[in-house]
Amino acid sequence: MLFQPCQTNVLEPTIFHEPWWLDAVTGGRWTAVEVSHGGSAVGRLPYILRTVLGVRLGDMPPLTHFLGPAIDDGNGKPNTRLLRHIDITRELIGKLPPMQQFYAKCHKGVSEVIGFQAAKFHAAVQFTHEIAPQPIESVWNDMRDKSRNGIRLAADICTIDTALEPAAFLAFYAANLEARSRTNHLDMTALLRVLTACLDSNRGRILAARDKGGVLLAAVVVIWDTTTCYYYNATRKLDAHRGAVALLQWEAISDAMSRGLHFDFDGAPNEGSFRMATNFSANVTPRYIVTRQSLPVRLYRALKSAFVQPDYFVDSD
Q: Model's pTM, two decimal places?
């Protein structure tokens, strides 16, 4: 597959910051605050504004795994740039409209959230796994033997299909959830829009594994920007060989390494995904989360958390 490189924009540091992505996942219902110095934009913070029972909530757009402030802190010494970064962050926060809650999970370009903490935001962290660009042989050699054997076995019994359409992927995804008696919480209309946009602009790929008879066993979605390929979504038939997903992951990782991209497993929301990524010897890296809530919202969330135990490795309260 030919790769069409996308142009770097410091205020659009990831695919999730790009206007076409935000339009696709929200139907155009997103906004952003922006800071300019000397007539040039130096900071931008996209978000969506929701109203629930009269409460105004600033939130992440749906289907967007990371976002956060995009800041151009210019040139100069590291301490000068850090102070400039903090100042721009505080200016962005000052431009947010009145709301009872704001929540953002920051992308990897955000290495600190001091400006948010100074503005009385709560800071937390979630972890993801990344594989840095390197010869694919190095990735293979660093993997666990069990993982390599699973991929070899899957390669013997599966073929990789790169022609699966977004609508077919979503139908397969929904059927697999139903087979497991799980509720589908995704906005499938928005997901169809964003997957179609990714494939049409050569910013994403659907990889599917089929058995020798052509039966669909598993499928994964990867998307990318100028620096990183993200493991965005995956689904597997209930009785499929477990190595089928690993085979597709290996194909996606190999493609990313060949193009000099990082491969990001895009979060570790539970122990299963954490162990899966660890099988590939990926490095654990943090993603910062910032929240600010009014007292009534904090009390509601505290009461809710007393009865609902989250299944992800993050303290967002």
A: 0.88
